[in-house]
Amino acid sequence: MNRVMLHPFAGVLSAYGMGLAEVRSIRERQLELPLEPRSMGSLDLAVAELSDQIRADLAAQDVPQDAVSILPRVNLRYAGTDTSLPIDPDADIDVMVGRFEQTHRQRFGYIAPDRDLVLEAATVEGVGRERDKDTSEPVFGATSPGEAVDTVRMYSDGVWHEALVYHRDQLAVG
């Protein structure tokens, strides 16, 4: 490598991107049940319990409950195999079988309709959209530099400095 290029604001842009990112929580529960009608109650219960845990996770991160989307998935696999595929759950088992077979054919090029399916796990992802983020240019109310609210020690360019701290909303443009 002859040249490395670093953006001067790489750290700031990374932090800005993280600040704009959605808050997520993912929970999973192993079920290992045959895909049949009597297993659907266990699946529904697992999804409900995982969804409650996710809502609590996101609430602890100050995400309002009305801003949480719950995305359940079910991992299915053929009995006797070890590779499961995530699909959207459905109350109709035939719909889930169809989704699994379509995904399996896309991934592996074949299906085995004579093989039993195993409901391996329930996975639930919660996506929390925090309050609408304002990405517009900041509006500063002050017209003068404002007064420093604190002084802190800062190490820069090999030397310790005393740096003044200001409240952002009290800074003038420029």
Task: Please provide a written account of the structure.
The protein is α+β, with helices and mostly antiparallel strands and 174 residues long. It is 27% helix and 30% strand. The chain contains three helices and six strands, in the order αβαββαβββ. The longest helix is centred in the N-terminal third of the chain and has 20 residues. The two termini are 39 Å apart.
Mean pLDDT: 88
Task: State which percent range the strand residues make up.
Answer: 25-35%
What structural category arises from helix and sheet content? alpha+beta
- From the alpha-carbon coordinates, what is the Rg to the nearest angstrom? 26 Å
- Largest sheet geometry: 4 strands, antiparallel
Keywords:
174 residues; alpha+beta; four-stranded antiparallel beta sheet; two-stranded antiparallel sheet; 3 helices
Summary?
The protein is α+β, with helices and mostly antiparallel strands and 174 residues long. Helix content is 27%, strand content 30%.
Task: Describe the secondary-structure layout.
Blueprint: H1 10-20, E1 23-34, H2 40-59, E2 68-78, E3 85-87, H3 93-108, E4 117-128, E5 150-156, E6 159-165
Antiparallel strand pairs: 1-4, 2-3, 2-4, 5-6
